[in-house]
Every structure is written in C-alpha cells, then in structure tokens.
Design a protein that fits this description.
Helices cover about 40% and strands about 25% of the residues. It is an alpha/beta fold and about 300 residues long. Helix 1 crosses helix 2. The chain is built from 11 helices and 11 strands. The strands form 2 sheets. Strands 3, 4, 5, 6, 7, 8, 9, 10 and 11 form a 9-stranded mixed β-sheet that branches. It has a two-stranded antiparallel ribbon with strand order 1-2. The radius of gyration is 24 Å and the shape is elongated.
C-alpha cells in the first residue's frame, strides 16, 4: 500500500476547494495528468473514492466530504511542523481549537484561558461555542482538537473525562412570588409560566428523560433555543426557567435568583471529549493539562 504524501493531500484539498483540476494543477505547479495520478494514488491508499468528475465539473463524494477537514488538518500540522519546529517545541506559537457548549464557554473557560495566555502568550485559542451535538461532531471530524461537552453527547469514536457535575435549578426574578419560598415543589410550578428550551436541546432532553419516569412533564409557555435567551425572558418578568446552575449569573445579581429543585434531582456531567486513538498536538495537550490543574485547584 502506498503511503500518503504531502502532495497527495495538497492535490485533494486544492481540487476540493477550487472544484477545478486546471486551477489546482496550476497552483501546485503540476500537469493535470500528474495531478490525476496523485489523486488516484490517494484514493487507492484510502480505499475509497473521494471525487467525482465530468468534463464540466468536479464534486466531492460523501467520503470526500468527510475526509476533507481531516486532510486540511493533516496539511496544517505538516506545514506547521516544517515552519516552526522550534517554536512549537518551546510553546512559543500554535493554535488550540476547542468545541465547547456555550454555558461552559462563557462561565468556565475564560479563567483558564487567561492563565494559559499569561504563560504562553504566543498560542492562539479558537473557541467553537456550539450545541452539544454539533460540538461532538466537530471533535469527531477533526475541526476541533477536543471538546467540553455533556456526558449525554456520546459517540463511539470519542472518550469522555468527567470534570464537574452541574445541577439544574429554578431561575426567577428576585421579586417573583416563588422567590419568597425557601423550598420549591413541583406543584408550585403549576400555573406559572415556564420558559423552556427546544426539545432537540441536549439540556431539554436530559430534563425530559429525568422527569418522565416520575410522571412530571414540563408545560412550557415560552420556548427558546438558547439558555441565555431564557434568562433574558426571566429577567423581564415573563416567567421562570429550569436550567443548569452554570448558566446562572453571579449570586449577587440584582434581579435574578435561583432555588434548588425538589427530587428527582437533575444534573448534567460536564467533561472533556477527545478522539480515541488520535494523539493531540503538543499545544492542545498543554492546554488540557492546565485546564485539569486549574479545575483541581
């Protein structure tokens, strides 16, 4: 079997991006027959068809679409290793890409990034603040070095390292009638306008699953896509919301407060998600090491 060479990957990425054999051949200073041989060799090595071609156009197969981000990543890693071995070795330069659920990106990551950049000012941090499902796909596809996600977002090609447990609480305005109660029961929510997130949200699915076994249903009056939006509606006095404690603002917020929920107690587990069997870059390993250290403190 042939080994994958740098020019094989470069040829595939150039053709995929330009959708033109002629433009790709010119950019790589190859003849079109030589370019075709490069692509044919890559497909033979992978055992799959990556591109389809007619006299008028070129397009990616489904396998090609899946392989393209991986090929880009391999090219970037190869080029960075040639251009900056010394810088990468001493952690003077580099990039770490993290696929992170929005609540963790807002409330958990900034303090770690601040300390990390003080120690390694030349390393750039790229945060993909996306949903749990999309974050998982970004890690699996190689678009992100690793992810910070919920344990409910699982995939056979990734491993999960728990970091923290994040219980769900009832969020409300400080002047809401329920705020006068030290303990809130599920019956207290009857007749109250409840703000929920959409049913395809990982948080909503976790809530519905935990409550359904106890015959409890969330009867939402408002439905939103993001936890931050639900908090905005709560602050305007439009209702109350059930959301992870991590999504709540500072305890000294002048308008908002929270109460623990009665049994069944519901929580989500937040942790690190990384691809199985694929080593991380030294910069990503360095960031994870500091993240775990900071969290244990």
């Amino acid at each position: 079997m042939h080994r994958i060479e740098f020019l094989d990957l470069a040829a595939f990425v150039r053709v995929a991006e330009s959708q033109s054999f002629q433009e790709a051949a010119q950019a790589l200073h190859l003849s079109q027959p030589a370019l075709s041989r490069r692509l044919q060799k890559l497909e033979e090595t992978l055992g799959a068809k990556l591109l389809e071609r007619t006299t008028r156009r070129t397009w990616l197969t489904e396998v090609g679409k899946d392989y393209l981000p991986r090929a880009r990543r391999m090219l970037e890693d190869y080029e960075s290793s040639l251009q900056g071995i010394r810088e990468l070795k001493t952690h003077q330069k580099g990039t770490v890409t993290i696929a992170c659920i929005p609540t963790a990106a807002f409330y958990f990551l900034p303090s770690v990034i601040r300390v990390f950049n003080e120690a390694y000012p030349g390393i750039r941090i790229r945060i993909l603040d996306v949903s749990a499902n999309e974050g998982l796909e970004r890690v699996v596809s190689g678009d992100a070095d690793f992810g910070i996600n919920m344990i409910s977002a699982q995939h056979p090609d990734v491993s999960f390292t728990p970091l923290l447990r994040d219980p769900f609480v009832l969020a409300m305005r400080s002047d809401h009638p329920l705020a006068a109660l030290q303990e809130v029961g599920w019956h207290d929510l009857q007749g109250v306008r409840l703000i929920t997130v959409s049913r395809d949200s990982g948080n909503r699915m976790l809530l519905d699953s935990a409550l359904s076994g106890h015959g409890i249903r969330l009867n939402g009056f408002y439905e939103v896509q993001h936890l931050s939006t639900s908090l905005g509606l709560v602050e305007c006095g439009l209702g109350v919301a059930i959301l992870p404690r991590m999504a709540m603002p500072d305890a000294e917020h002048e308008n908002l407060c929270s109460r623990e929920l009665p049994p069944p107690h519901i929580e989500r587990t937040i942790g690190l998600v990384r691809r199985d069997g694929e080593p991380l870059s030294s910069t990503a390993e360095l960031f994870i090491e500091m993240l775990l250290k900071r969290w244990r403190e």
